[in-house]
Amino acid sequence: MIDTFAQDKSRTRAGPRSDLAEPEEDPIPTLRFGVNYTPRHGWFHAWHDFDPARTREDLAQIAGLGLDHVRVFHLWPLLQPNRTLIRSAAVDQLARLVGLAAEAGLDVLVDGVQGHLSSFDFYPEWTRSWHHRNVFTDPDAIGAQADLLRTLGRALAGRPNLIGLQLGNELNNLIEHNPATPTEVDHYLDTLLAAAREGLGADGGLVTHSAYDAAWYGDDHPFTPQASARKGDVTTVHPWVFSGGCASLYGPRSPQVLHLAEYGTELAKAYAEDPSRPVWIQETGAPEPHIPAADAPHFARETILNASGCADLWGVTWWCSHDVDRSLADFPELEYTLGLFDAAGRPKPIAEAVAATIAELRAGPLSVEPRDTALVLDCTPSTRSVSGPGGAYFEEWMRLRQQGVRPAVVLAERAEDESYLATRGIKELIRVP
User: What InterPro entries does the entry give (predicted)?
Assistant: First the structure.
């Protein structure tokens, strides 16, 4: 069995890796560790017949790993089956889950519009067929989503274990069937973030949004790095090893794979206007066959330890809690084995690795690793892929990292801003050859 670690809200982040140079002391008060909750029985279809007893069992297993929070997802068609109908029973289910998490000692981030989950898209019927509305540009569709987020915020506001409300899971996965320009996407995000904040109230918790990696290194993708790094209260990153073919290009035990979450965090910091804006590694996981099962514990440990050396890291939220049961059809193969627990609820070796790494980090001294050297990123929206796996910038950053440098990322337009560089503690700039 895996021991339960204390759920101490004053928990602190740990110090440097023993194999790296000793940094100066720079304490950060909290580093959070959690998991994206996938119900063991029925996957997210469990919302059709929500079972509190089964949910309680799942959450107890999660808490037993020493994790302190979960990210949870209801399904958009069940919450809002008609543009002007938000089902109170579905909202109550979500509120009940937040309460059950509190009983288990877990905090909760709620994603509002799903949207996209594990290769499936969930659209309400009022957005489809001859009712089709572009969910990013149609004023009525945007208004309906804003109404949903206000309603969820009001239903959840005031709960002490609520971290906050996120617009939805990787909404940019829907862009292929709902084309939009960057300006239209910005309007969409601004409108929904304002609605979520209105629902929660000024002190109701974090309000944020998420996107998959195309937002960071997809050429001309309409969800931009600037939107991810400047809208909402924190920046969320989802550094998956299959994005850009990272694991297939470099190998599952390569430095490029083991430092990918660290790199994604530093890349996100470069696009922020506030140098101290928090970054949340909100999804990372060990998808087979990109990460073979035998390598998953090592991958998890190294990913968490390397990322923990980043300043202003909010936390790491693993994907996901439980494997998808193989009685469910038509998932991509990698989706069936991403859990910390198998479909029978048994902890896998990766769960042991995650729990042990978290315990080690919480036991360590208060410090972060300084990054006084930065690699300058010079790209346009049409050349953003240079910063992704296989790109010249990505490969130079990883080369420096393998040499023992801990590079920060600085955008070319900030490279001459001495005040900005000083605020970030950057003393040396390197440019890609």
Answer: GH
Two tokens, residue 221: 């993708």
Quickly list H helices, 64-123. 76-79, 88-103
Entry pTM: 0.93
Give kind and range of the element (H or E) at residue 55: helix 52-63
| pLDDT tens-digit series, residues 190-245 | 999 999 999 999 999 999 999 999 999 999 999 999 999 999 999 999 999 999 99
Q: What is the pLDDT of residue 24?
A: 38
Q: Which CATH number is 430's domain given?
A: 3.40.50
Roughly how many angstroms between the first and final C-alpha of the chain, as a whole number? 51
Question: Do 83 and 190 fall into the same domain?
Answer: yes
Q: Is residue 175 in some structural domain? A: yes
> Virtual CA dihedral for 204, 39, 314, 305, nearest 10 degrees?
170
- Whether 361 and 226 map to the same domain: the answer is yes
250 and 378 assigned to the same domain: no
* Residue 264 and residue 339 in one domain: yes
Instruction: Give the H/E segment covering residue 315.
Output: strand 313-319
Are 173 and 212 within 8 A, CB to CB? yes
Q: Are the C-beta atoms of 343 and 287 separated by less than 8 Å?
A: no
Which pair of structure tokens corresponds to residue 143?
Answer: 């208004």
Omega within 30 of 0 (cis) for the link into 379: no
The total domain count for the chain is: 2
Question: DSSP letter at 171?
Answer: G
What percent of the residues of the chain are helix, what percent strand, and what percent coil, each to the nearest 5? 45, 15, 45
Which token pair is 149?
A: 């987020």
